Every structure is written in structure tokens, then in C-alpha cells.
Amino acid sequence: MAEDRYITQHIVLGMGQLMKMKMVDEKAYPGFGSILSKAVAYLDAWLVKDYYNELKGKDHAYLPLHYLYARSYMNSKNTTTDFTRARDYYLKKIRSEWKVFEPYQLAQTALVLNRNGYGDEARKVITLLNQRAQHSNELGMYWANNKSGWWWYQSPIETQALLIEAFDEVANDAKAVEEMKIWLLKNKQTNDWKTTKATAAACYALLMKGTNLLSDAKEPDITIGNHNLSDFRKADAIREAGAGYEKVIISAKDIKPEMAKVEVKNNNQTVAWGALYWQYFEQLDKITPSKTGIKIKK
What we know:
Layout: H1 5-20, H2 32-55, H3 63-71, H4 81-97, H5 103-115, H6 119-132, E1 134-136, E2 140-142, H7 156-171, H8 174-189, H9 196-208, E3 221-224, E4 227-228, E5 262-265
Antiparallel strand pairs: 1-2, 3-4, 3-5
């Protein structure tokens, strides 16, 4: 079948990230290096084509930037005149145009510049992103214009994952990274991450950047009135593996007015979610209409 330049760049990016994390066993995958070298050579040639086409007035949108980002994980050198000229041209282009980029391209630009010796300019990109960011106790740190679209670079989940990598690597901003993780997790709480590409990007950002989510497994301290939650827990109580979910039932005769006050302390560095609900029963003939926005008659 016909080759696809973008998908090749995407695969090379994934292979580069695996190499950076030192997760490639050459003995287990003897053809890994050979495949990667051929793919990089193919993409290098495409960048040269982009360069000469652009000199003729044909714009290639954001594909060259995506290439530079994927290529920034590689240590392989290409010193040919045409390639050097093309790479320098596109590095100069993003240095002059990044102020009008959207968050996805800004994150890639910051990483590309930082890895190519332009650290000061990369930090300026992060400063612009900081100025445009929004903050919320519930949603963390996010960007209002990070929205879905038809194009391959308009994926909110992948964009947020990229931004996490940029803030972690370029700015070393641990606080911002943890705030941005909240937005990613919140989008998974009652939803899904839409695509396999987005899910892989989100997992990479959550597990490889900032605090390790999987290592934080301490129980929260939950106090109900003057009692600890464990006072009401049955001896044979079973908690759900992974999520830690458990259901604790307190009978009516044990409920006291002071138990209306519930305190929760998260003993981990990472975000946690929980829920508290009060369920009660009454004879149907004693139920009266409630004065709320919704009226129900039975």
C-alpha cells in the first residue's frame, strides 16, 4: 500500500520515546534499530521535499513541525547539505512564527527549540502558554482554546499530554505538571480519551512526567464526626483492586448529628476523587413534595 508520511512520523515518535525511556531491548527486538533508521531516512528526505516545495510557494502546514518534534528524540546525524539547509530553514521559521500558534504547536515548538539549543526561546514559549492558561480547583490547569477539530493536530487529550511534556522538560515546573494531570484525569473520570493515539499519549504524560501516579497508594484519612471510617468498616470488607473503591454502610441507629461533619485528608501527592451520599428510607404515605426546581407527585 502507499506510504503515509504522518503515520510514519507518529510511529517514529513512539519509537523515539521508547528509546528515551530505555525500554527497548535490542535482543528482544533485533530489527528495531534498522526499521527506525530507514524510517528516519525516509522522513529526512520528506523534509527536503517540503523545503524546496515551500520555496515555490507550497505550504505544508504543521507537518514539518511535527517531524522536527519526532526527530528530536533521535541521536542519528544527517550532515547532507540539502537536509541541513531544510532543517535550519524550518527551525528559523518556527522561531519567527510561534507567537500565533495554538497550544499543540506551541508545546511542540518549546520542545523542539529546547532540544536544538534554543533554550531561552523555548522558555519564552512556556511563558506565553502560562499567560494563556486557565486554572480551576476542579479542572486543574488547562487552555480554553484546546478544542477538538477535524485535523490531526486538533486532539485535546494529545495536546494536554504534549503540554505536560513541555512544562516538565523545558520549564521543570512540577506544580503546573500536576495541575495539568488533573485535567487529563478529569476527562477520563466519566468519559473516555476517544482514540488509541490519545490514550497512549495520556498514559505517557501521566506515568513518565512529574509524580508517579502508580507509586502513590496511601489510604486517605476519613473522619465522620468523632469517628474514623475504620470504626464502621466490617471485618470482611473488600476494597476494589486498583481504584480502592469500598462501600461502608452506617445503620440509622448509629447515626448522630455530629456525623454531618466529614473530613477527608489525601495522604498522597497526586489527585484523588471520592463521593459521599446519604441514603434514607421513609414510608411512601409520609413523603411530602419538596420545594426544589423539580416537583414529583407520587
